[in-house]
Design goal:
Strand content: 15-25%
Strand order of the largest sheet: 4-3-2-1-5
Largest sheet: 5 strands, antiparallel
Number of domains: 3
Helix content: 40-55%
Number of strands: 10
Number of helices: 9
């Protein structure tokens, strides 16, 4: 192909590349779908010109080596490689949307975008400017090693975040609890840290490396329901069966707890002073726990008044004192309720 025949396709590629950038910006960030369509259409047009014009973007230009024509050739190849990167990134975004990936997938997307841009940058330096790519890779490897040693803690957070994302330990909106007792709803995950919104309406910022080292309990999986237990003590002079039936009535009367699976009443222990029961019930979410527990306590108080049931003193308030000496010289102990 002669130089004149080669010149027109290069000019068309530059026009399409610049026009694609302008139209992409005119779409605005509020129209992501329109931007993706623009990327695909203009890149398809550039590929058509490259094919029909016999241009090889993966090879340096051997026809125009100096002057304005050489500048036009290099800019056309740079625009083609740039639009290739944008198109691949756009297709990845389409794949994520069609598969309804969780919002925290932006960590993987950011990593993929960085790898794509790095590959395109090396391709432009090697195929457009004819630079030795192998030497660049070696040099960049040494620089990366130095930066890795200097940014060891930060990189630990980054890779821990990627591991947590791939392992799907939690998702945005999940309630989680750590081994140290910290609990909250996941509001954001990024390259360095994860943010938790606690029940006190505070944001706790946890480095991803700390999350990876600690044990983590998901309170939102397999569903949002959360089990709560409440221990109640009744005076031992009353029938355990009667107490159990009264507590079942309390749980059935509650409107803040989940009735499926049904709540349960478990008799835990009995002694000379008290019958101890454990009320086991679920709430729709962890945020409903305090409201549900308050309601259950209010219902227990009302049920005790209605049925004439008497609550027992707490176990720690019972003090045992020695009784007077009996005729045999021994001692007997009797329980006395403390203050």
């Amino acid at each position: 192909m002669s130089g004149d025949d080669y010149y027109l396709p290069l000019a068309l590629i530059n026009i399409l590349g610049i026009a694609g950038i302008v139209v992409w910006h005119l779409q605005g960030p509020s129209r992501p779908t329109g931007r993706l369509i623009v990327q695909l259409l203009f890149f398809a047009g550039m590929c058509l010109v490259v094919y029909t014009g016999g241009i090889a973007p993966q090879q340096p230009d051997a026809v125009y080596t100096e002057g304005f024509a050489a500048l036009l050739s290099k800019s056309a190849r740079i625009l083609w490689w740039t639009h290739l990167a944008w198109t691949i990134i756009g297709l990845i975004h389409i794949y994520v949307r069609l598969n309804r990936k969780p919002r925290e997938a932006h960590l993987i997307l950011d990593m993929a975008v960085a790898v794509i841009y790095l590959g395109v940058a090396l391709s432009v330096m090697g195929f457009v400017f004819g630079m030795p790519v192998a030497s660049l890779v070696t040099t960049s490897g040494v620089v990366a090693l130095i930066l890795g040693l200097a940014l060891q803690n930060t990189l630990g957070d980054v890779f821990s975040g990627i591991a947590l994302t791939l392992g799907k330990a939690y998702a945005i909106g999940d309630w989680v609890q750590l081994n140290d007792g910290t609990a909250g709803r996941v509001t954001e995950t990024n390259w360095r840290s994860t943010n938790l919104l606690t029940g006190a309406n505070n944001i706790v910022v946890l480095p991803n490396s700390m999350l990876a080292r600690q044990g983590l309990t998901s309170l939102s999986r397999p569903d949002e329901t959360h089990q709560i237990t409440l221990v109640v003590r009744f005076a031992a002079v009353q029938s355990p069966h009667r107490i159990e039936e009264a507590m079942r009535s309390v749980l059935q009367a509650s409107i803040r707890i989940v009735q499926d699976p049904p709540p349960a009443v478990a008799l835990k222990s009995i002694d000379a002073v008290a019958v101890e029961l454990e009320l086991q019930f679920r709430v729709a979410s962890l945020a409903m726990g305090t409201l549900a527990k308050n309601e259950i306590i209010e219902l227990i108080h009302s049920q005790c008044k209605a049925d004439g049931l008497a609550l027992a003193f707490p176990a720690q308030s019972l003090v045992y004192v020695p009784a007077p000496t009996n005729r045999c010289g021994g001692h007997s102990a009797c329980p006395r309720q403390g203050l």
